[in-house]
Amino acid sequence: MKLTKDFVSSGESPRGPLLLPGLVFLAGGVICLISISQTMLELFGDGSVVTALFHLILVGTPGVILMYTGYRMPRSDISPQYYPRLIAWIVGGTGVMFGFIVLRDFHPGVTVEWTVGTQSIALLIGSIGGLSIGIQESKATTRTEELKERTHELKDREQHLERQNERLEEFANIVSHDLRNPLNVASGRLELAKDDCDSKHLSHVEDAHKRMEALISDLLTLAQQGQDPSDWSIIQLANLVENCWTNVQTEDATVNIETDSTIRTEETRLKQLFENLFRNSVEHGSSDVTITVGDLENGFYIEDDGPGIPPDERGAVFETGHTTSEQGTGLGLSIVKQVAESHKWEIQVTEGTYGGARFEVTNVEFTSG
Question: Where along the sequence do coiled-coil regions lie (predicted)?
Fold first, then answer.
């Protein structure tokens, strides 16, 4: 049987509380024996069958209930630490009923006959009523303790997230300053070297610098995604898409904007989502790929007419570092997913209308403008 942490941590012996279910079972058995004996006396004496059944039911019912309670207590979700209070409620409820009878007996003009029936009714009502109250109190106390523990866990989790955000901010500072500064120096030296000599190797160095810059930008974006959106605004989706398209090197690609939606979002992060999806289509499609942005019933989609994403690879496209392009950093679609999740949106990838990749963003909050 599982012991609660209260007994284990306090060093108290749980033996006493664990003996209580057996005592309750034994008490119920004694009451059942009394019930049976009273019934037999009525049947073999001068009593009637109705009176015998009356004794059997009224006295036997509390006994059976107490026996079942004693049997179920160790097998229920009630902690052993609450056993004494549960028994106290049973005894207290029975005592209240007998006390009520005594008070009635002392009342002027009222005579109470202390028959087996009277005592049986008091025992039945008092024990069942006390048991019911005790069980409900134990469950309520257990729920309260669970809520306290859950609240404590949430506070610990909140503190952990705060420390994590602090580390992310430190990481962002390192990325934006300590890495970009030497990269800028290297890029400047590269320009001087190109003036001094003409070598095919310098173009490869320049490509490496561009890739490093892209990695730094994506890493910085990922670090900033650790915080929930705070600067919410109402955005016309079509206007934002046009702005994002001008910020991306799209070669000969074209965009079709088929949306008139207005949504509530953090504009900076939503731009990151669209710009990364546009780059993804251009990098993985042909030079003249066509990208379409349109509305869904509860969101929007971005699709292209490129080669698409095989079904067995769609589950991995949002993983950090996953890329099939030499120019890709493997972080773009991870950023897209984090932007969606920070807005409490859902995103999935499927096949587009013309066989290309289609990204569907749902659970979006539309506005009237």
Answer: 144-174
β partners of residue 111: none
Distance, CA of 309 to CA of 306 (rounded, Å):
9
CA 188-191-194 angle, to 5 degrees, is: 150
Q: Concatenated DSSP letters for 266-313?
A: -HHHHHHHHHHHHHHHHHHS-TT-EEEEEEETTEEEEEESSS---GGG
List Cβ neighbours of 75 (8 Å cut-off, separation of 6 or more): none
In the numeric block, which tokens belong to residue 281?
A: 């289509």
pTM: 0.48
Amino acid at 254: T
Quick one: 41 exposed, middle or buried, by C-beta within 10 A (0-12, 13-18, 19+)? middle
Residue 361: enclosing H or E segment and its boundaries? Answer: strand 357-362
Can you list the domains of the chain with their CATH numbers?
A: 1-227 (no CATH), 233-362 (3.30.565.10)
